[in-house]
């Protein structure tokens, strides 16, 4: 399963709203995880509002009552699909935490986004970006939740940059807000390019070009 930066990619998932718990009663007659995977792929390809309940039941191989029993409603099913997408093999939070430097964290997010958005067996682009673009005013609560998820990734990267400034890894003139925002904006742009049919090589090239805006190492300047 691709990473969730996924768009980043990209969050401490334990902070997200808890999954809807299924009401007690008759046991499920279908594989919940397999059905959720199909729902995630469908939302990823078409977005939240463009995906109908009929589309979901057909893809998941279940009836509407089964969806309500297992997930609550379409909104909860979508949010649980997003959580599944973001969890991935490696979360954005783990990528940021494990990077040796702030620059390394930014590059990893961009590089992995280029890979995740051009998978052979998954829809192009980012589920978070697709869901946000297709949300109307009637689904404002969903849009706000997606914004909160993206904001959590940006906050984490910003924190990494702030610590890099404090440790001397980056110049005191560094603007953590601008740099974190730049990375997130590029990731959103990579998603759009992928949905337009851009190749992984093109996305990787754009990511490398974006990193040229990263401030130089102040220690390297003194060599």
Q: What topology emerges from the helices and strands here?
A:
Blueprint (H helix, E strand, L loop, with lengths): L31 H15 L6 H8 L3 H8 L2 H14 L4 H7 L3 H15 L10 H7 L6 H28 L8 H20 L4 H12 L6 H4 L2
Q: What value does the Rg take, in angstroms? A: 19 Å
Question: Fraction of residues in helices?
Answer: 55-70%
**Tally of structural domains:** 1
Secondary-structure arrangement, i.e. CATH architecture: Orthogonal Bundle
Largest pleated sheet: none
Q: CATH topology, what is it called?
A: Tetracycline Repressor, domain 2
Which shape, going by the Cα principal axes?
A: elongated
Describe the model.
The chain is mainly alpha-helical and 223 residues long. It has a single domain (1-18, 28-215), classed as Tetracycline Repressor, domain 2 (Orthogonal Bundle), CATH 1.10.357. Helix content is 62%, strand content 0%. It is built from eleven helices and no strands. The chain has helices at residues 32-46, 53-60, 64-71, 74-87, 92-98, 102-116, 127-133, 140-167, 176-195, 200-211, 218-221. Helix 1 crosses helix 2 (53-60) and helix 1 packs across helix 7 (127-133). The radius of gyration is 19 Å and the shape is elongated. The relative contact order is 0.17. Mean pLDDT is 85; it is low at 5-27.
